[in-house]
Every structure is written in C-alpha cells, then in structure tokens.
C-alpha cells in the first residue's frame, strides 16, 4: 500500500520537524495516545507543504526512510530536526494549524491575510510558545509584539517566534485585586500580587513597554478558551496569523474538543 508523505512542524510540546505517513487526524491520535514518548498535555503543530525544502533539513533523506512496517502499518514519525526548526521554516509553506487536547480531539485553524484588530487595552499578556517560552506583560498590541520579539537587538527574542495572547483586562483585574488580593489570575504560576506589581511597574516607568512575568509558558495548564486573538508566526519580514474560531462555533462543530479546551 502506498501512503502519502506529510511534513509536520511540532510547536508544542517539543520543537521538531517530522515526516510521517499518517494523515493529520491519525498523526494526532498516535502522538497523544499511541506514543510512549508523550504522556499528557496539549499538542500544537502545523502541516507543511510536503514539497517544502530547505538545505538545513534533510527532508529527502527522511522521505526515503518513510517505509511502512512489515505488517503494512504506515511509518508514524521520522524526526528530521529538533534544533532551530522554526527559524528555518518558510511561512509560505505553512498549511493548517492544529490545536489538540490530550484525548486526541482537535480543531484545525486556517491562516488569514487579515491582521488581528488592535484593541485599545493599556497592556496585555503574551504567551511565547516556540522557540522560547516566556510569559510577558506588554504595552505592544498583538501585531506590534511581532516586531519587538524578532528584533535582532532583542536579547530575549529570536528570528522567528510563535506566540498567542491571553484574554486579559487590566482595569478589571486591578479592580478585582483591590476587592480581593487573593483573586485568581488564571495565569499558572503567577501570583496576583506579582502580576499587580508588574502592571504598576510598566504603567509607571517611562519608556517601559515589556515586563517578563514568567520564565516559562505552561501552555498545557492554560485553557484554549482563555486565549484572545489566536496564534501568530512572527519574523521581521513576514507574519502569518491563525485566528481562533468563535467559541460558539467550536461548541457546535467540535463539541468533544470544546468540553476540554
């Protein structure tokens, strides 16, 4: 039996380029349920054009090793590279973006040429997912942040970055904190008082637009429902934006996924 060749860019939980004979749906089931190397948590990946080539990756060599097992089962994964992967991927080769839960349920997102509409919030919270993992409080809007984080002069950035942002209202949080200092921030590992102090620092320091609030981005512990815009692939020269589907549409079309988002 002949199987199609697929290229998958893993963005979380690891950072890898993988060749596979599995379709996206079957690949998800294998990765989160059939692989001994993945125990629990989310899976986020993008499908690449199978004709994509970059001299940094030995894609042809990996394709040559995509041979079905003796019993006819397709070859599930052939790791091509796990270092500086996103940096060497052409955004034009990106296809659908898959956001998955630990049970193998998923939603496939399409890129849009439209930029996310900037909101007038004083500041927001960005989740850096790949290749660095940080959570930052920033005055930059969702699109502006792409230029900041991929600036070559930024010692905490990278040439290409994949990130999302949280649904977060500064004034609402500050009001709730004043009423109850133990209010839940829904940002894992970040104490409400520390978040409040970070907000005050950014607000009261002239010229300061970014404040790191976590040295990790525990995306597995953050509900997809708490994201605001969607996901952004960013570089200095080009971006690619994948907006989230409205929650009502997810509930209607992907109920199993919606229940555990």
Your description of this structure?
The protein has helices at residues 24-34, 59-64, 144-149, 170-179, 192-204, 247-253, 255-259; strands at residues 6-12, 16-20, 43-48, 78-81, 94-100, 106-109, 124-130, 134-138, 160-166, 210-214, 227-235, 239-243. The strands form two sheets. A six-stranded antiparallel β-sheet has the order 4-2-1-3-5-6. A hairpin with a 3-residue loop joins strand 1 (6-12) and strand 2 (16-20). It folds into two domains: 6-109, no CATH class; 124-244, no CATH class. It contains seven helices and twelve strands.
User: Which percent bin holds the helix content?
Assistant: 10-25%
Order of helices and strands: EEHEHEEEEEHEHHEEEHH
Distance between the termini: 36 Å
Our count of helices gives: 7
Count of distinct structural domains: 2
- The unreliable regions are none
Outline type: globular
Rg over CA atoms, rounded to whole Å, is 19 Å
**What is the averaged pLDDT score?**
93
């Amino acid at each position: 039996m002949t199987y199609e060749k697929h290229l998958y860019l893993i963005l979380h939980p690891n950072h890898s380029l993988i060749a596979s004979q599995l379709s996206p749906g079957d690949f998800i089931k294998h990765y989160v349920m059939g692989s001994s190397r993945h125990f629990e948590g989310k899976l986020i990946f993008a499908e690449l054009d199978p004709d994509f080539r970059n001299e940094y990756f030995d894609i042809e060599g990996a394709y040559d090793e995509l041979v079905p097992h003796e019993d006819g089962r397709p070859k599930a994964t052939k790791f091509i590279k796990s270092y500086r992967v996103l940096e060497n991927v052409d955004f034009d080769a990106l296809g659908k973006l898959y956001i998955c839960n630990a049970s193998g349920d998923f939603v496939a997102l399409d890129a849009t040429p439209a930029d996310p509409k900037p909101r007038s919030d004083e500041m927001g919270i960005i989740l850096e997912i790949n290749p660095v993992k940080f959570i930052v409080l920033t005055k930059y809007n969702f699109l502006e942040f792409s230029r900041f984080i991929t600036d070559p002069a930024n010692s905490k950035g990278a040439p290409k970055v994949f990130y999302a942002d949280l649904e977060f209202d500064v004034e609402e949080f500050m009001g709730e904190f004043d009423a109850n200092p133990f209010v839940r921030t829904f940002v894992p590992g970040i104490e409400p008082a520390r978040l409040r102090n970070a907000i005050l620092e950014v607000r009261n320091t002239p010229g300061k637009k970014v404040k790191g609030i976590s040295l990790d981005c525990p995306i597995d512990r953050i509900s997809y429902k708490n994201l605001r815009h969607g996901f952004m692939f960013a570089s200095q020269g080009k971006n690619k934006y994948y907006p989230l589907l409205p929650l009502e549409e997810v509930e209607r079309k992907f109920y199993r996924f919606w229940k555990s988002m």
